[in-house]
Specification:
The chain is of the alpha+beta class. It folds into 2 domains: about 35-125, Immunoglobulin-like (Sandwich); about 135-395, Purple Acid Phosphatase, chain A, domain 2, CATH 3.60.21.10. It is built from 7 helices and 22 strands. The strands form 5 sheets. Strands 12-13-14-15-19-16-20 form a 7-stranded mixed beta sheet, covered by helices on one side. A 5-stranded mixed beta sheet has the order 11-10-9-21-22, with no helix packed on it. A hairpin with an 8-residue loop joins strand 1 (about 35-40) and strand 2. The protein starts with a helix and ends in a 12-residue tail after the last strand. The relative contact order is 0.12. The structure holds fe (ii) ion (FE2).
Length: about 400
């Protein structure tokens, strides 16, 4: 009898534990269902007064609320509530949410809470200054984060430790353009690592590469659904200009992935003419016109040199950021298809944020290359406070990490 009672008690404990575990699982699923994740910050308009925030949260609830304020200690009525626009697209299982905050104060840190009953997500962001002479602007330029995830994560950490205002990225984020797993991993890494110790998220200005596009080259935007739906950029989203400060304009172009090189010429000339008085004119796109690895007579490099390069030279573009070759590169100053130390345009690249790195051509044998070698890297650009200097310095991934022997 005693044995039967003991068995009954144990059975009751077992079933009660099962019910609790089941309830806990339901709660966990409910919580994770609406969890804001994969947050990415971009700009569609003036970076001194706007910010676009996009995230994934696969809950049942659409149109979540985001609140923001310029003081994290502000009383609740000083926080502005904004309803996010929710959307998805055919190729994904994700439910995405986006808001564009407008009418912000320049050079201001804002604090954000994305509402969620279980895990509200909080972080901050910073707008850019509206006037010259306010402060230095630091930004990073890179590309090709593709397939070595551990290296990409290390590069992400290195990028955040530079505390940049923003990052410009010249394409090839992932390898498989329609691989949801790869895009999830990329956005998970960005969410986790592109946030400073103080909780400030770093915006990205995106160019498209061949790996974002099913077919790679000579395609149309519908062949790049993840790129166009997940990075909310100015319209059209493959080629656009952003006035980053009164002295600095960045032009982003599409090196014939979803828009032809010749088809962008008219817009490029109009945009460069409109910005001719800007002290600093920068351009980014994916395929290198002056490659460090590939054949310079390939179709796209030739088309870029024929159609875009004469305009860069005519309007005195200061610096062009290229990618695609997966190596470190700096060209000599180039004008009229030859070295011109006084009036030439310098091209840097060629992507090294996690993609497999390649051996380069020998600069001694190729007149357009000043330096080129295999290295994981990005570039750090610092616009001086008075906007008279733009310092351009490479940041390399150390060849080996430090380690400690013996007890500390
Ligand atoms: Fe590429």
């Amino acid at each position: 009898m005693k044995r039967y009672v003991l068995f009954s008690v144990l059975l009751a404990i077992f079933f009660s534990a099962c019910i609790e575990a089941e309830q806990l699982q339901v709660k966990t699923e409910e919580a994770s269902a609406g969890l804001p994740m994969q947050i990415v910050l971009t700009w569609q308009q003036d970076p001194s007064t706007t910010m676009t925030i996009t995230w994934r949260a696969d809950g049942p609830d659409e149109n979540p609320i985001l609140r923001f304020a310029d003081d994290p200690e502000a009383r609740s009525r000083r926080w502005t509530a904004v309803t996010a626009h929710s959307f998805t697209f055919d190729e994904t299982e994700a439910l995405l949410h986006t808001v564009e905050l407008t009418g912000l104060e320049p050079d201001m840190e804002y604090y954000v809470v994305i509402e969620n009953p279980f895990f509200p997500e909080s972080f901050s962001f910073r707008t850019l200054p509206a006037h010259s002479d306010e402060r230095e602007i630091v930004f990073l330029a890179g590309g090709d984060s593709r397939s070595r995830r551990d290296v990409r994560r290390e590069m992400n950490r290195m990028a955040t430790s530079e505390n940049p205002d923003f990052i410009i990225f010249a394409g090839d984020y992932i390898s498989g353009p329609l691989s949801e797993r790869e895009w999830d991993e990329w956005f998970d890494d960005w969410h986790e690592l592109l946030i400073t110790e103080e909780g400030r998220r770093i915006p990205i200005i995106t160019a498209i590469g061949n790996h974002e596009v099913h077919g790679g080259f000579f395609q149309t935007p519908d062949k790049a659904p993840y790129f166009y739906n997940r990075f909310i950029s100015p319209q059209p989203r493959n080629y656009y200009a952003l006035e980053l400060t009164p002295d600095l304009v960045l032009i982003t172009l599409d090196s014939d992935h979803t828009m032809g090189v010749p088809e962008q010429v008219q817009w490029l000339e109009k945009t460069l003419a409109k910005n001719h008085d800007k002290k600093w004119k920068l351009v980014q796109y994916h395929v290198a016109a002056w490659p460090s690895v590939r054949n310079m007579n390939d179709t796209i490099p030739r088309m870029i040199r024929e159609h875009w390069v004469p305009l860069f030279e005519k309007y005195n573009v200061n610096l062009v950021i290229e990618a695609h070759d997966h190596a470190f590169k700096k060209t000599v100053p180039i004008r009229d298809n030859q070295r011109d130390d006084e009036h030439g345009v310098i091209y840097i690249g060629d992507g090294g944020w996690g993609a497999p790195i390649r051996q380069t051509k020998d600069p001694a044998m190729h007149w357009w290359l000043d330096e080129a070698f295999a290295a994981d890297h990005f570039w750090k650009l610092t616009l001086s406070k008075d906007a008279t200097h733009l310092r351009v310095e490479p940041v390399f991934r150390p060849p080996a990490r430090s380690f400690v022997l013996g007890a500390e």
